[in-house]
Amino acid sequence: MTRLVFQLGILLSLFSCETIDERPMTPAAVPAPESAETAPPSAAAAVQPSPSPKAPEEIGSRRFYVNPKSEAAKAAARLKDTQPREAGWLQQLAAEPTAVWFTAKTTEPEAEASRLAQAVAGSTVYAVAVIQALPKQDCMRYETPGLAPAAYRTWIESLVRGLGETPIYWILEPEALLLTACLKAEALTERWNLIAETILVLKKNPRALVFVDIGYPGWLSVREAVDRLMKAGVMAADGFALNVGQYYATEDCIAYGQEISGRLGGKAFVLDTSRNGKGALSREAWCNPKNRAIGETPQAPTGIKGLEAYLWLKEPGVSDGTCNGGPAAGVWWEARAIELMRNALYPGN
Prior knowledge:
Strand order of the largest sheet: 1-2-3-4-5-6-7
Structural class: alpha/beta
Order of helices and strands: HHHHEHEHEHEHEHEEH
Number of strands: 7
Distance between the termini: 17 Å
């Protein structure tokens, strides 16, 4: 967040004479990056030559795909002359990478995936994408459509064909392992199996990193989260994802993630920080809660034990649903994006 606020200070000086609070939004309790340690040479190494160890990546060195035609970019251009300050905020949001979502409404998955592959071809950036297409994925909390199992398998195969060997972070089925109360035993087992199968299909791409969503702190105990991840085949994945589209504070998510990771043999996790700069209000206040803020900007590696990446998986400004004045779920909401940015810059508000 420090980088984002610093850049905004430069931009806003062109538009406004207001004084900006440039304090970083990174929570004080977030663990500091670990220093790299070199393991002592083994006796075997002294006898038999081995390849030199790969140097650890520099913190924040990975780059992610930025959609030049995002809703934030369009709004920034539209407001440039009439609301220059807000346009500057939205321009900064548009400069940050956010995930592409493939849902049951993606009727041409191979073509859409191919377009994403072409967008990053010839570069060193990673695509970031979310898959959300299971039947009754959220127990119909917002009447989320899903694909029947056979259609789902075909759809996943199409995504993989379209993407080829594009380097990508896949985030698999937000809330599908969390919201299961509506499923009978047979349907629940089918869900575990579909996710496990999907991991293996996505991993056909040797440059794909796959993370299975397991919700957020305070919903599932660590033990239950581990149990569900294991049933869904997480050991074949690169790890798990937390806080997708939610508001839980970074430090709480890291502590929760590290506990889960420790019980999964050190599996890594990724964290959605697109809207969690002020943390969550309560378990019930999940739908467009007021007075929230964006969190840490996307970064990988992080240097924090277990934490693979900060990512923006839900684009700041996308509505959670028709609550607190919002449009339908999934629709981008300009006023909401501006509010999230304003609260990040002026945290005392």
